[in-house]
Amino acid sequence: MNGQNMLLYRTITVRSVLITSVARQITAGSGSIRRLAAQLPPRIVIKEDDIEESFLKGSGPGGQKINKTSSAVQLKHIPTGMVVKSQATRSRSQNRSIARRLLADKLEDAEKGSASRTALKSEAKRKKKASKAKKARRKYRALEDGNNDQDEVSATGGTADDKDEPLYNDDGKPEA
User: How much is the pTM?
Assistant: First the structure.
């Protein structure tokens, strides 16, 4: 395969992945995500003059590449003194954008408190989890009630409809 065909193949693959992910979002019922996104306040914008940026050598898992390169990003918001460090990926540019997003979220939490984006998202997640737990409790309570009814039936030797039929003992002979 020559280079031009290889490039074409990669382009087609990327497009199909994007189309597939968009189709999944549409079919997966992303209505709740859209509702949440519509309710969230816009992200705050931080001036570049207010940020002190430094690049550090990474640490932890990732091997020699992480330890030798300065791909970790540390941002300091000068007016507030808040510091954020990002080492999510091996790419410096991705870490820069992630660190900026983290710093914006942290500043918004400090500024708005319970009305911030992260607080609203965590509240929605908490409510969804509580609803799921309530549904599970309801389900198992219904199953338990159904099992109790079965226990009562076996304890009496049958149901009320079985009165016309004789009861049999272990030998297979009808009881008196």
Answer: 0.53
Question: What is 105-167 written as a DSSP string?
Answer: HHHHHHHHGGGSHHHHHHHHHHHHHHHHHHHHHHHHHHHHHHHHHHHHHHHHTS-GGGGGSPP
Helix (H, G, I), strand (E, B) or coil at 171: coil
- What is the mean predicted confidence (pLDDT) over 42-65? 86
Residue 88, exposed/middle/buried by CB under 10 A (0-12, 13-18, 19+)?
middle
Task: Name the strand (E) or helix (H) holding 12.
Answer: helix 3-27
Instruction: Classify residue 14 by burial, with Cβ atoms within 10 Å: 0-12, 13-18, 19+.
Output: exposed
The two tokens of residue 78 are 């000068």
CA angle 168, 147, 171 (to 5 degrees): 15
Choose between 16 and 28: higher pLDDT.
Answer: 28
Place of tokens 């954008």: 97
Q: Do residues 61 and 89 touch, judged by C-beta distance below 8 A?
A: no
